[in-house]
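ok so I'm stuck.
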Amino acid sequence: MSKLNIIAAVGENMELGLNNQLLCHLPADLKHFKSVTSGFPIIMGRKTWDSLPFKPLPNRRNIVITRNRQLNLEGCEVVYSLEEALQLLDHEEECFVIGGATIYKEAISRAAKLYLTRIHASFKADVFFPPFNLNQWKLKEETFNAKDEKHLYDFTFQVYEKITQ
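replied:
not stuck anymore, here's the structure
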């Protein structure tokens, strides 16, 4: 079975986005996202697919989960559940859930790693990252990035690994 990872950028209150858009533009986070997920399959909901500036994301197998059984999207594989997506990736070493909130909520209990970009600001949002128990996760890496001319906010890259009993 493929090791399931989650990658997300969140605000101080676990905000994910507003009106199917990211909270803000952080070029270093986009570069980080690309370097972490490149070469691995990515799983996303249909709204996340719709929000992508270009489709499919290159150098990654793009899998989109939707309830619409008539949906045919060019450049990706369409499935109807997280379970079906994971079955497709059974032979893969690792894969990433890249959004949105509904898919994160379903995947978090099965995830082995969380790659979170913590944006040190609060935002108006209509979707949020699901609550999770930090006691079940061990912080393995943390890199602080100060705001600068390209980044309006301070942010921190974090990698958590699930603690196995």
